[in-house]
Each structure stands twice: as C-alpha cells, then as structure tokens.
Design a protein that fits this description.
Length: 166
C-alpha cells in the first residue's frame, strides 16, 4: 500500500495559504467604506430625585454607515470596549445622506455612495442591564455574508452635534 501522507502534506501546504488569502480579500471586497459617528443624547425633561439630583443621564448613540455592493449582509453584533451590542440596520435609498454636523469643525458630515452601491445605516442597542460606556475606543462589527462570518474594526467615531428638541 502506498503512503499518501506526502500528498496530504503537499495539498494542505498549498491550500491553507490560498484559503487564508481569499478570506482576507473577500472582506475588503464586501465593505467598500465605513464611517462611524456618535451622538450624545441629552434628555429634555429630567426627573429629579429627592435631593435634586437628575435621575436620567446622557446617553451616547453610535451610528455607523457602511457602503457595499451587497444588499444581503447580515449584521450580528458590535463589540464596544468589550461589551456586546445588538445591531439594527436600515438601507438608505439615497446615494447622498447627511449624517449630521461635526461637533469639532461645525461642518456637515456627508455620506455618499456610488451608483449601484448599497448604503447601510447601523445603530447599536444595549443588551439588557449592561453598563453603558461613553468611551468609544475599540469598536468591532461582526457580520455575515452567505453564511460566512466576518469582522471589521471601526475607526474612533466622530461626534455630531445634537439637534435641538422641542
């Protein structure tokens, strides 16, 4: 009987790098660009406790825009500083969208997509009673395409000005 171990070793030594390289290339082909924003929500009417301390605290909302050629991406979760968030998504039908006003520069933050691209708007929702963080250093987004799992690292978010509420 012939020893086939040489052929197995040869096959795996050739195929492993090919599979790893194709996996890395695929993620970059799926997501063409990403933009991360944060908005601090300040409550209008604040319920006060007996010693006049506000009970409600400011909350930070993270909004992410993803440009892709694919309209069937499934967004699983986001991890912000080690805490897991549920991701809700919506496809924006316009090729140009105003995310808001940059809190530092005062300029409009415009998101654009080329013809044929899909523009996703993603928002993160806290899961149950986890602590909320306003420090947004590490943000990882987990998603699936054709049942294959991917993750992408987001840049530190740009803070936007809150619109005045009535």
């Amino acid at each position: 009987m012939k020893d086939n171990s040489f052929f197995f070793k040869l096959f795996f030594s050739v195929m492993t790098p090919v599979l790893l390289v194709s996996s890395c290339i695929t993620e970059k082909k799926i997501i063409h660009s990403k933009a991360c924003y944060a908005l601090e929500i300040i409550p209008g009417t604040v319920k006060a406790s007996e010693n006049d301390e506000g009970v409600l605290k400011n909350d930070t909302v993270v909004i992410v825009y993803i440009r892709s050629k694919r309209n069937d991406l499934q967004w699983d979760s986001a991890v912000v500083n080690g805490q897991v968030y549920k991701v809700t998504s919506q496809i924006i039908s316009s090729n140009r969208y105003e995310a808001g006003i940059n809190a530092v520069t005062g300029k409009k933050e415009l998101i654009t997509a080329a013809e044929g691209d899909v523009l996703y708007q993603l928002q993160f929702q806290k899961i149950k009673d986890q602590k909320h963080t306003t420090i947004l250093n590490e943000i990882t987004l987990h998603f699936r395409y054709k049942e294959k799992r991917f993750k992408t690292i987001l840049n530190k978010p740009v803070f936007l000005l809150q619109h005045a509420s009535v």
